[in-house]
Structures are given as structure tokens and as C-alpha cells.
Design a protein that fits this description.
disordered N terminus; mainly alpha; disordered C terminus
């Protein structure tokens, strides 16, 4: 199976781009800190961070590590043709790409897929399995929004008005229905003759649905990936001494993360502003929200980034021709369907 040389132009360009974006993220971080220290209105935020309980912050680091491990567990469920050590390295590299580069989770899967393609894995298989992960984690996010909205409408602590409790619930339910209906609508819209990318994405939706119908312990990774990450934010609020109600925190987190879609490296500034604003909307005090979000973002940025860097250093020699075994194995894939038409698209 052919692999690309480590010094091929695409790899060199990618390394240059990652280095430039990392430098930009570092510069923006310095600017944010300078702004915090220089603007009098932000001095309460600095005091809140300085007075945080270090044990809760340490707990937040442990929870973020649990979130990262959960993603590795889920990644190995979908990329079952990749040897276990390389799958773990690819998962960590994908997470680092997601937190450092614009695009969030989509960018993470794109980088992981590109690295797998360098090993000779077929593009359609990569698109299909990457889409499966994306839509399964998106389904968990949607379920979290729907569940939190129902709790608030049912009288749980937090805002109970329709705009903040019912509207997010309805929006998440509608988007979920549209995604679930995509495989049914594709052939009726001429999708079979369309782009292989569209076909791969639709097959990925089917894979996500199939994974839900055939439970595996690795599906717990989808719950842990989101749940532990929200728990990190809860821990940073607890470090201040003012943890918000869980349902309000979940909605503030999921809505605030929409800002991460903006093309800013590392989400520096935009993710912090989006999360803090959403949490204030759901009842948090502005200074508490800003301090908790800044510490949360530092943990959620540096832990996956450091782990991904170490994983890439380990994985990079495996992409060189003639070095070790190729990451993609030649064993028959473990599939979750008995439909020969779907299995036929796997290499």
C-alpha cells in the first residue's frame, strides 16, 4: 500500500500552515491576556482566576483527559481497519487539529482523514467513517440540547421561558430529523448518480444510525467525549464557587460552541466570547462566566494540543516509505451491517 514521503510538498505545506496558525493562536492568546490586564472592566475576571480553587482546576484537567480518551475509544469503533496504536495516534492528532485549526470537529476529521489517505486508505472509506463519527457526536450534542431544554421546561433550576428553553429544543429536534432523513431523501433526489463525497457522507449517516442500533461499549466514548468536556466547564465554575445549574450549563455550552465555527485558529477570543455570552444568557454572572470560560478554554486547548503533537511525532515516521507497518491493516473490516451493498463500498 503506497505511502507519501514525509518531505513531500503536501506534508511540507501542511507543516508550514500548522506552524503559522499555531503562532497566530499564540499571538492572539498574548493579546487576550494583555487585554485582561489592561482594561479596568476586566480586572474582576483576573481576580476571579487568581482566587480559583486549584483542586477544582486540577479536577478539570483530569476530566478533559477523560474526554480525550473517550474520543479515542469512539474513533477506534469507526476506524476498525486501522491498527490500534496508529488509530490512537490518529485520534489524538485529529483532536489537536480540531482545537488549533479553524473548523472545529470538521477540521479535526479532515486532518485525520488526510493522514490516513497518505497511507493509501481509499477516500470514500475515510469520508464514510469520518462522517459516521461526526454525525454520531452531533446526535449526542442534539440529545443534550433536547434533554436540557426538557429539564428546564419541566421546572429544573434555570430559565424556563420558551426562547431559552423551548426554542433550542425545537431547533435541535428539527436538525436531527433532517439528518436522519438524508439517507432516505438522497436516492429520491438523484443522489446515487451524484458526488461520491455526498454518497460517502450519506453512508456515514447510515453508519452512525447502525452503530446506535448495535450497541458497543465503545459508544460510551460519544457520551464521554461531550459529557466530560462539559464537566470541565462545571469544574472551573466550581473553582470560583458558583457552579450554575446543570441543564442551564449544558445549553449554554452547546449554544456557545457555535461560535467555534468561525475561522479563527484555536477559537481564541471567539469561543471565549461565545461561551461566556451564552452562559450569561442562562443566568451566570459575567465575571464568573468570563473567568470560568478562560480557564476552561486553556485546559481544552492545551491538553489535546500537547497530546496531538506527541502523537504526530510518533505517527510521522510511519508515513515514510519502508518504515514500519502501514497504519491501515489488510484484515477484513469489522462492519455493523449485513447489507452487501453497503459493505461493497469498503476496501
Amino acid at each position: 500500500m503506497s505511502v507519501a514521503a514525509p518531505h513531500s510538498p503536501p506534508m511540507a505545506v501542511a507543516r508550514h500552515g500548522v506552524g503559522r496558525r499555531a503562532a497566530t493562536a499564540g499571538l492572539l492568546g498574548v493579546l487576550v491576556v494583555s487585554l485582561m490586564l489592561g482594561v479596568p472592566a476586566l480586572q474582576p475576571v483576573v481576580r476571579e482566576i487568581r482566587d480559583m480553587n486549584p483542586w477544582w482546576v486540577g479536577g478539570g484537567v483530569a476530566l478533559e483527559l477523560a474526554s480525550c480518551v473517550s474520543y479515542v475509544v469512539l474513533f477506534r469503533l469507526f476506524f476498525d481497519r486501522v491498527a490500534a496504536p496508529d488509530a490512537r495516534a490518529l485520534a489524538w492528532t485529529s483532536m489537536a487539529s480540531g482545537v488549533l485549526l479553524p473548523g472545529g470537529g470538521v477540521g479535526a476529521l479532515a486532518i485525520g482523514g488526510w493522514l490516513m489517505h497518505l497511507t493509501g486508505a481509499p477516500v470514500r472509506w475515510i469520508v464514510r467513517r469520518s462522517s459516521g463519527i461526526f454525525f454520531l457526536t452531533s446526535a449526542v450534542n442534539g440529545a443534550a440540547i433536547i434533554g436540557a431544554g426538557m429539564l428546564l421546561l419541566g421546572g429544573s433550576s434555570g430559565p424556563h421561558d420558551f426562547a431559552r428553553a423551548g426554542l433550542p429544543l425545537l431547533a435541535a429536534a428539527l436538525i436531527t430529523l433532517l439528518i436522519v432523513a438524508a439517507p432516505w431523501a438522497q436516492p429520491r433526489l438523484g443522489g446515487r448518480a451524484g458526488s461520491p463525497w455526498v454518497a460517502g457522507i450519506v453512508e456515514g449517516i447510515r453508519d452512525a444510525e447502525r452503530a446506535g442500533r448495535h450497541p458497543s461499549w465503545r459508544l460510551l466514548g460519544a457520551l464521554g467525549y461531550l459529557g466530560f468536556d462539559i464537566a470541565v466547564l462545571w469544574a472551573t465554575f466550581s473553582a470560583i464557587g458558583h457552579a450554575p445549574p446543570v441543564a442551564a450549563l449544558m445549553l449554554g455550552y452547546t449554544i456557545g460552541y457555535v461560535a467555534n465555527a468561525l475561522p479563527v485558529p484555536g477559537g481564541i477570543g471567539v469561543l471565549d466570547a461565545g461561551l461566556a455570552a451564552a452562559l450569561v444568557l442562562y443566568g451566570a454572572q459575567p465575571a464568573d462566566a468570563a473567568a470560568a470560560v478562560l480557564v476552561y478554554h486553556a485546559i481544552a486547548l492545551w491538553l489535546p494540543a500537547a497530546g496531538g503533537l506527541l502523537a504526530y511525532v510518533r505517527l510521522r515516521p510511519r508515513l515514510a516509505p519502508g518504515v514500519g507497518d502501514p497504519p491501515v491493516t489488510h484484515d477484513p473490516p469489522v462492519t455493523h451491517t449485513s447489507n452487501p451493498a453497503l459493505e461493497g463500498c469498503l476496501p
